[in-house]
Amino acid sequence: MNGGDLLYLTSYAESTVKTYDWPGLGHRQTLKGFTQEEGLCTDKKGNVFVANLGGNNIVEYAHGGEKPIATLNDLAGYQPDSCAVDPVSGDLAVTNLAYYVSGTGMANVVIFRHATGHPRPYTIPTIYSYYMCGYDDRGNLIVDGFGAGSHAKAGFAILPHGAQHLRKLTLDPEPAGPGGIQWDGKYWAIGDTGSTIYRFDVTGSKGTKVGTTTLQESSTIFEFFIYGDRVIAPEHETSGLRAGRQAQVFNYPAGGAAIGSIHGLNLPFGAVVSHGI
What does residue 13 show for φ and ψ, rounded to 5 degrees? Predict the structure, then answer.
């Protein structure tokens, strides 16, 4: 199915991915067959990758497609949380959570060369459990997560384009939690797993805050997606009157009150807009 842009949202508790017209938000289809799927990402062709956490794999769909066109197996014993596609090389980065690892210790971020084959793992001692990741337009990768221990702080790392090792990334100020990561065309947008997206200017291994986007009356946003002057924010809140039932659309970078919403979800986690053909 070709046509216009499509918004994809994961509905974690239903093990489904739902698609909507963008920006109209009319429901188009529901993709099934996942197990606790979480993050989403897309490539230049509009293909969409689903981090199928409970299935230990990453499932790829063509824009608007109803059946997978490819399935990539994660490393044995690991389960994927989020993903990002390098616009320069076409490589696929996937983060893995530590607390799902079967006796293998620290988790990792893995990279599938050209989004195929077997992945190469990357780790850094300051991050034990990896959460979100994103590429900029030059092929630099930023990842976040938590260090080890019950009172661990959020950790951030950068893999410069062409580098062989992750480097610790220092952000000023440092977000309270490891939220979504996306290049917005000028700055790095990094969330705090709450309702705030910080914009950072990153040089080398240091990032300085240049702006803040506050999403009013929203909470527990893990992955967001910026598309032009809009940002889509699924709410993964597990308590409260409207807990985990909606994703909202906001102006970006202005933030403020929501200008649109999608209901009928169950613990939404990931969001991505796939461009039409």
Answer: -70, -15
